[in-house]
Amino acid sequence: MNMPNMSIKLYQHVHSNIFKNLNDLAWREMLIAGKDAKSAIEKGEINHLGRPKIAVVADGAWSKRSYKTKYNALSGVICIIGARTKKVIFFGVRNKYCCVCQLAENCGELTQKHVCFKNWNSASTAMEADIIFEGFKQSLDMHNIIYAQLIGK
Questions:
Q1: How far apart are the C-alpha atoms of 147 and 153, rounded to whole Å?
Q2: 135 — alpha (psi -120 to 50), left (phi > 0) or beta?
Q3: Which segments within the chain are labelled E, that is strand?
Q4: 97: alpha, beta or left? (left if phi > 0; alpha if psi -120 to 50)
Q5: Where does the record place the Mutator-like transposase domain (predicted)?
Q6: Taking Cα atoms as reference points, which of 150, 98, 144 lies closest to residue 129?
Q7: Cα separation values, 31 from 37, 58, 83, 118, Å
């Protein structure tokens, strides 16, 4: 095609902008989806303080298949979805690996300033439970909703 390649610096800049915009959009949409879930009030599904109680579905994935052995995935993700609205109201990711940090370590250099996505040092098998726990913890702050029932996939 005789077209020049994008420089690494420009690529990093564009990548960072796209990530930030997509991340912001995802969180805004989850907040909107949480408002939709408040239809529980209309159905009388509230606790003694008047907070709506809803059923949620949680499903997750790991970065590799385990086949009942070697549960050592480097990444895991969970989505919490309103059972009635079928909309995502929370998601979380756990990463045990950062390619920038690993490259610096392999070369014996100091890690350069970067956005590091490594946020997990425990067992891979605990990633999903930790993300679900975080989602339940944030349900009141994010949506003022109580996740009363968990439907697992």
A1: 16
A2: alpha
A3: 53-62, 75-82, 88-95, 146-152
A4: beta
A5: 1-152
A6: 150
A7: 10, 17, 16, 25
Q: What's the token pair of residue 103?
A: 């490259």
Enter the tokens of residue 99: 């390619």
In this prediction, residue 67 carries a pLDDT of: 64
Q: Report the chain (153 residues): mean pLDDT per 10 consecutive residues.
A: 85 91 95 81 83 91 69 86 92 90 87 86 88 94 91 79
Cross-strand pairs, 77: 61, 93
- Other C-beta atoms within 10 Å of 22: how many? 10
| Amino acid at residue number 142 | M
One-letter amino acid identity for 7?
S
